[in-house]
Each structure stands twice: as structure tokens, then as C-alpha cells.
Target: Glutamate--cysteine ligase
Amino acid sequence: MKSFNELVGKLSDPASRQALKSMQRGIEREALRIEKSGHLALDKHPQALGSALTHSRITTDYSESLLEFITPVFEDIDELVEDLTLTHAYSVRHLNGQRLWPVSMPCYLGDAGDIPIADYGSSNTGQMKRLYRKGLTYRYGAQMQIISGVHFNFSVSDQLWERLYELSDKSLSLEDFISESYFGLIRNYRRLVWVLPYLFGASPALCSTFIQDPKTNNFPFEVIGNGTLYLPYATSLRMSDLGYTNQEQDNLNISYNGLACYLDGMKSAINMPSANFAKIGVKVDGEYRQLNANILQIENEFYSPIRAKRVAKGNEKPSESLARAGVEYIEVRALDVNPYSSVGIEKSQIRFLDLFLLNCLLQPSQPTDGAEEAEISANLNSVVLEGRKPGLMLSRSGEEVSLSSWLESLFGELKEIAKLLDDEQDDYQVALAKWHKAVDNPDATLSGQIIKGLKEDQIDHSEWVLQLAEEYHQQLKAYPLSDAVTARYEQDAKASLAKQAAIEAEPSVSFDEFLADYFKV
Model:
């Protein structure tokens, strides 16, 4: 494979630069509905937002209270963010006085048993989606499931794949070349995933109500104000053991050394029984508690900061889609909600992600082994818990290296890509310069800004977030929505409700039979 510098040189002609620029992106942003008091909303998903089962833009995740806003795929960043903003603006107008919680970690939690599991209706598909989430409650508790994040979907253009294929040794078919190249990107991403919580981690502090008894917790928390727990150098507690993790999965060892390895690993994982989850029971006294007692109920339960994806056809499982036609795009899952944006992410982050992911694609990517997997995990854990610690050392290929020097080297490579992507506006180089400040100044990271602000203002994290929730509510409520856009959202909501009703009216087998058929090998 050609070196990074060789590839960058080969991609500097006008046609190749245009192929590089024609990236496709989509965003999924999660946000809890809260009452004006800050407490979790416990009512049903607002009917004006349509059916969570069938709406393409507005759905729910684990909880009935956890909204998820989904954009279509865009090539233009301005159009992408505008679409996400319009969906937010329409939604806040139909929340019946409720607000959106603008950070990843929840607060003002009462009894975890009161957290409502998402309801998708009476169809077998809807019941299965709800039962999967019920299983998550039994397995990990409800609190962990209402943590919010931002997912970034990314693919490069067909024109770029054709150009990269021409520059390869052509030992694979084009389809296989694309899949294997995406897995190369994934391996490099995992080696560098710590960069994202360092720069964009925005959960260094949390509300004390999230941890029912801090004394029993192993984290050496310090306190700001009356109820804010924080770690002095943390970046993303969401990505720590406090967040969405599954220790049962530690022994799965799913390989990213190619599509075939990944599919074999996922197949084994789906069928691997768990002694701990078996104790919960699957169907107890005639009532289901979980889909099954395996380590993974379904593939979606596999926790990973990045996923290889393909749009499914019909009722395909994710791995069946990948096996059918290879990798189509990747999903970045290591992003906290950005509290400094009303929609949870801003354009300079998107441009940085473009550069970061292109770099992961264009760099040589050797297979990983057990020792490197342990190194990847240790680096990520160090950064989420103490990424802003002065002089923090990480491990690269078995050798100690400072976080700042590794970042400095990475930014140099990203600048070469930014030059290829920029025209007169220099948008990519401007975005890169903004985040470059954080290399030597941890206070310029999102987590650094949050802790600095809380300390200077001596304000509880929850109080600050509640103020932001109100500010963004008013801002989005005032955001201009044309009659045509409003009518489109209203029509989408009505159409989704009608579609759910049609699904529920169709003749169907029993739920037991439906599940048995779904899990049939």
C-alpha cells in the first residue's frame, strides 16, 4: 500500500480533490425530554412528532423520553446542520412546554424504576423493539440507557473509491476493496479514537443524582457547588465505566481485521450464552424479560465506538446487510453532546471529523493483535478519565509517547488533507486551527471549557445545563420555519402514524413465533 504522503500527492489534481470533497454525512442526535424543572419527562412520545416506530427523522432510543433526531444524508455541511436545526425547531414547538436536556449525562433523577421504556406499539416489530430495551434494563439498569450521544455517519464518494482503486494493486474486486478499506479506516480510527474525547468530550462532570451512593463508587470525585461531581482532568465520563459499557462483552474479541473476520466474530457473539444474563430469565411466569440470555440479545447491543454499516433491505440484520454487499458507510459513536450548540454538534467539529476520518482512510492500516487491542483500550480509558492531565503519556506501538506530541503530529497530517479540501474560504484549515489550540491548552477542549466555566461561576452543573436548556428552547422556538417546512413535518408525522397503524392491522403470527423466526439460524 502507498504511504500517506504518496497518496496525498496522487490526490492533489482537481478531479481527485473534488472526489475527496464529495463526502456524504448524516447525524443522529439524542436528547432527553425534560420538564421545566429539569426532571425527566415521564409522559408518552408527543403525537405531533409522529410514530417513533416509522418516522424517518424523529424517533426515540431507549426511553420514551429519549428523543433521537436523524438527518438524511448530505454532501453539504451547511445543508446538513440546517436540516438538523429545522427538525429541532419543529420538535420544540410540540413538546407541550417541555425542554431538551442539552448534555450527555442526565440529571434530576428520581427512582430509576420510573424511567419509561420506549413504546413502539402492538406490532411484533414494535414489541420486539420494546422487549430489547426491557432486556437492557434488566441487564444494566435504566439509568445507563438514558445517557445521550451524537452519532456521525460518514462515507466517501464513488469517485474517490474509483481513484483509490486505480492506485491500488487491484488484487481485490472493487466491492471487496471498498469494504477492506473501510475496515482499514476503522482500525486506524480505533488507534486514534482517544482524540475525540480529548477534543470533544463534554461530560467531565455530572449531577450527583446520577450516582445514588457516591461513597460506593470507585471514582475519586471532587465536588463543585452543592451537587456537581467531577474528575479534575476527565473529558468524557459518558465513555467511562459510568457510561454505556458492557463488561460481558470484554471476552468477545470481535476482530476488525477485515469484513470476513468481523462477520465471523459477530456470528459467534450473537450465539454466545451468558451465565449472568441467564439468571435474569427470558420468559418468567409468562412474561418476557429479554429477547434471549446471550451476551448480545441482538447485534445493536454490541458496544463499539465505531460501526461498519450498510442500509438494510427489508428485515435484514446488520451483519446480513454487510454480508450481502459489503460496507457502505461507517458510524462514529464516540461523540458527547456538545453543550455549546443548540443541536449538539457544530460545523467545526464536522469538518474536523471529515479530516480525521479521511486521515484514517488514507494512512496504512496493519491488522491489530491482542497486545494492540489492549493498548487501544488503555489509551482510551486514560483520556476519558484524565485526558487533560499535564504531561499525560499514552502508548503507541508499545512505546510511551506524550498525548500532546502525538496530537501535534496528527494535526500536521490533517493539515495536508485540509489543504486539498479547501477553496477560497479555508474552512477546513480554520476549523483545524480552532481545535489545534487545544493541543497545548487543555482548557480549549470542550471538557476544559465546561470545568473552567463551572469553577469560575461557582454554579452547579445541573443549574448551568438547565439554563442552557431554556436558552436553546427559546432560540429554537424562534428559529424561522416556513409554512412549507412546517407542512412537511406535519405530513411526515401523520404519514408515520398511518404507517404504524397499517403495520399493526396486518395479519401476523404470534409474538413467540415471530421471535423464533427472527433468531432462526
